[in-house]
Amino acid sequence: MKLQTTIPISKGKHPIDYDSRVLLLGSCFVENIGEKLGYYKFQVEQNPFGILFNPMAIENLVQRALASESYHKDEVFQHEGIWNCFDAHSDLSAISEQKLLDNLNHGLKKTTNELRSATHIIITLGTAWIYRHNSTQKPVANCHKVPQKEFSKELLSVDAVKSSLKLMTASIAAVNPKANIIFTISPVRHLKDGFTENQRSKAHLISAVHETISENQTSTAYFPSYEIMMDELRDYRFYGKDMVHPNELAVDYIWERFKSIWISPESYAVMDEVEVVQKGLQHRPFNPNTEAHQKFTKSLQTKIECLQGKYPFIRFKQ
What we know:
3-stranded antiparallel beta sheet, 9 helices
């Protein structure tokens, strides 16, 4: 008896391995995938501008990074004692104007470097709803708790999202034609927008992504995070307490699906070695002075040195 529908997914044409460089951009779900890749010590750069929910915010970062257009004082503001920028997440905000500008331009430079050198770029779209700052009419990445009356809310049309994605992919292809761009729709439910509004938003994103991919099949692909959550894990036990974010079990399941099609099978053995080390480093002995623990520590260090001999970029927190 089959008690679950399973979404068929084609294998990635150019899977990720330990020689790959992966850039992840987008909503909070991209951080879940990024953390998994980071745990297994792949070469990863994740959200240099913090979490970006809508496609126009991601497009703005890509275009600005590739143009090497630095941030200046007239593009930042102070609110409730903190300096912010409407183009970036509050992770980059700072208590001084100069520190914020340093954070922004450092993140911009990292994005530029990774866009030019990444073998894989994973872009996770969270919502088609955007907020425009009334005084400039520019869409913002984050409102930074500025009063809502200063913004106008808008649902991007399918064509508007598609246009944004096409500009994004064309700009990347112009400087890095070999990059594999993997789009996915975040399974996080944006219920603050409303139940129906969340579904409208996801529908616009899905339609735009698939139209973009159908016109650019050589360098773009789709991974169905949203569909896996909705159709394979269609139960509230796979959500966190807020009933909005996928819980740890759901993230693990979606990661396993991602691994099965986008991680090279030749990398699995290395992943297993990395996991042994990670679990060993998490071990806390009752008595660290025992001979048994000393042998354990020495063996673990040997494993670390062996991995680093093959992959010098791998670093463990010890």
